[in-house]
């Protein structure tokens, strides 16, 4: 064979091999449902069950004892399971969360865990995550968005039920009194727990006209603001407050300080209802300064990671998964305090 013919033959063989290789690789990447199934091409679906995932976690902030326990629980569960964690603290600001989610999308994470500061205004960024084929898991707080294909599942508490539990306790405790004046410390404006805890509480009290919410203002879920707002309530209406309903324990603890400084006895002169069941609330109850706390369990990290892994492995998940919770009163505090994990 002439030298020129040999070269032509070699070139022909080389081109044929390249064509076969290209055909094989393209049929491989289109076989698993790709972006239609909400999975990233060449990303999470390739991980298979038990593979290492990169998980972005956009947390609300560090506003309360509850939040600190929740952050720790989720971070630990992700790393304990051998996955890589990318964490972002939004410092209670929605714009920070939107930035964090965009950065997770740019980094092509396998899943996003997202605890939204407020309920609305996240459509665009969640759509961007969906278009990138990255599944979003709502943890603790829900969003108020019609298109529920923008997230896989919501794992967290039933905040309306927490509000109902608080009100039911109060009705049981003071239902016979002629008039009960309540002041309310609300959580962060526009947040799911603030909206729902108010709704559940008011729903029960609607059947009991002797209970009146005389003042209601946000304390942004922090001790400092809880104290500040309670000081203002006391200043304008000090002798006319029978009950404080606080949307979390941290604000209640701040308010207890304000009540003591004002010269009244929290737990006696003013009944104190909190939500979360953090250690600080148990300490206050054991000291007789707080009457009741409705549990909101932040330790769902392991359950959350399990859900992410199940989804990545192709399992169908319920759209809403509730965490089981209880309610604790002053008389149980001393015994239970040593057993509290957060
Ligand atoms: O979303 C849960 C709430 O957020 C907790 O009750 C509160 O303490 C927190 O900051």
TrEMBL record:
InterPro entries associated with the record: Peripla_BP_I, SBP_2_dom
Keyword Transport: yes
Listed SUPFAM superfamilies: Periplasmic binding protein-like I
Source species of the chain: Metabacillus malikii
Domain Periplasmic binding protein: 55-315
Keyword tags: Signal, Sugar transport, Transport
Signal peptide feature range: 1-22
Protein name from the UniProt record: Simple sugar transport system substrate-binding protein
Region (Disordered): 27-50
Superkingdom of the source species: Bacteria
């Amino acid at each position: 064979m002439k030298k020129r013919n040999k070269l032509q033959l070699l070139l022909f063989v080389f081109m044929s091999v390249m064509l076969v290789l290209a055909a094989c690789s393209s049929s491989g990447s289109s076989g698993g449902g790709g972006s239609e199934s909400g999975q990233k091409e060449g990303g999470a679906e390739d991980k298979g069950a038990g593979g290492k995932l990169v998980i972005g976690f956009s947390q609300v902030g560090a506003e309360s004892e509850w939040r600190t326990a929740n952050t720790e629980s989720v971070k630990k569960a992700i790393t304990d399971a051998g996955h890589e964690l990318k964490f972002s603290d939004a410092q209670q600001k929605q714009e920070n969360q939107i930035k964090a989610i965009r950065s997770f999308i740019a980094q092509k994470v396998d899943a996003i865990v997202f605890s939204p500061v407020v309920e609305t205004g996240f459509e665009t960024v969640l759509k961007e995550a969906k278009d990138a084929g990255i599944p979003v898991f709502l943890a603790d707080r829900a969003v108020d968005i019609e298109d529920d294909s923008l997230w896989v599942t919501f794992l967290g508490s039933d905040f309306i039920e927490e509000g109902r539990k608080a009100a039911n306790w109060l009705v049981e405790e003071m239902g016979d009194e002629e008039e009960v004046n309540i002041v309310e410390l609300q959580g962060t404006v526009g947040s799911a727990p603030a909206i729902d805890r108010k709704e559940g509480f008011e729903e029960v009290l609607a059947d009991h006209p002797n209970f009146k919410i005389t003042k209601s203002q946000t304390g942004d879920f922090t001790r400092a603001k809880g104290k500040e707002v309670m000081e203002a309530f006391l200043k304008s209406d000090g002798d006319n407050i029978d009950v404080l309903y606080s949307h979390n324990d941290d604000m209640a603890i701040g308010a207890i300080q304000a009540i003591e400084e004002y010269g009244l006895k929290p737990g006696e002169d003013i009944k104190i209802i909190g939500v979360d069941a953090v250690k600080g609330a148990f300490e206050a109850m054991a000291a007789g300064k707080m009457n009741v706390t409705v549990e909101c369990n932040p330790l769902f990290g392991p359950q959350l990671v399990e859900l992410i892994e199940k989804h990545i492995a192709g399992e169908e998940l319920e759209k809403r998964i509730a965490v089981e919770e209880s309610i604790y009163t002053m008389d149980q505090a001393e015994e239970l305090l040593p057993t509290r994990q957060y």
